[in-house]
Write a structure and sequence with these properties.
By secondary structure, the chain is mostly helical. The protein has ten helices and two strands. The protein has a two-stranded antiparallel ribbon with strand order 1-2. Helix 2 (28-45) crosses helix 8 (153-196). The termini are close together.
């Protein structure tokens, strides 16, 4: 009687739904961008919310993302799903971070010095509008991550929230200490300086992202098949039965 033995596929514990957000963070070209955006969020968390600016930012960001994607789609004659080898997804998505980052950092720095010199309330409110206008980086990073990890939108959002909230918690823990020690202007100058140190991270992802993606695909191609059934020869089975 023939016997069979199955080799079960090893399941990564990080692939389960509760831990999938941590697995997303093992992708370097995603983690680098999430860290940069999280530093921006940390600084934003330390200032007053710019509600109207945030609303306008979400509208502008959507238009910019669509424009950049359609421009690249026209260049290669297809979308990222159809032509992943030719579509410059890293450049297309991440360059949308630039205008919002510049707006946010400039406005945050201006807000810090406005508070430092006790500028009139209308001045701080106007500056605060531009702070909110620069918050489009979060949506850009989310869309970028979902492009690289299709079908894992929830895990991508969770991993970004995890990264940015951890940094925001660290930022709020030190903001009052710095504020009391050196004043609002120098505090926001220090925070902006910390953010500027992470600016190279998205460019590293643009330069190396495609190489890292191909390397993961090559490793995945050599993984064992989900189930391999081994059946001994008939002669061996008959001899065993006798």
């Amino acid at each position: 009687m023939a016997t069979s033995r199955s080799i079960r596929k090893w399941k990564d514990p990080l692939g389960s739904p509760p831990l999938s957000a941590f697995r997303i963070l093992l992708t370097p070209e995603i983690t680098l961008v999430f860290i940069f955006v999280s530093f921006l969020y940390m600084e934003y968390y330390c200032v007053l919310p710019g509600g109207v600016g945030c609303i306008i930012s979400s509208l502008l960001n959507g238009k910019l993302l669509d424009y950049a994607y359609q421009k690249e789609e026209k260049r290669v004659g297809g979308g990222y799903r159809e032509k992943p080898e030719d579509f410059r997804i890293f450049r297309t998505r991440l360059f949308c971070l630039i205008p919002f980052s510049v707006c946010f950092l400039t406005a945050s720095l201006a807000l810090g010095w406005a508070l430092h010199y006790e500028a009139p309330l209308p001045v701080t409110l106007i500056i605060n509008f531009f702070v909110g206008l620069g918050t489009g980086t979060t949506a850009s990073a989310t869309v970028y991550g979902q492009d690289l990890k299709p079908g894992q939108g929830g895990a991508v959002s969770a991993s970004l929230n995890l990264t940015r909230c951890l940094l925001a918690a660290v930022g709020t823990a030190f903001i009052h200490i710095l504020y009391e020690a050196i004043g609002a202007g120098w505090t926001f100058l220090a925070i902006t300086g910390a953010v500027l140190m992470t600016v190279p991270l998205p460019f590293i992802a643009i330069k190396n992202g495609e190489k890292w993606r191909k390397r993961r695909q090559e490793k995945k191609a050599v993984l064992p098949i989900a189930s391999v059934e081994l059946t001994p020869p008939d002669g061996f089975s008959a001899a065993k039965e006798q």
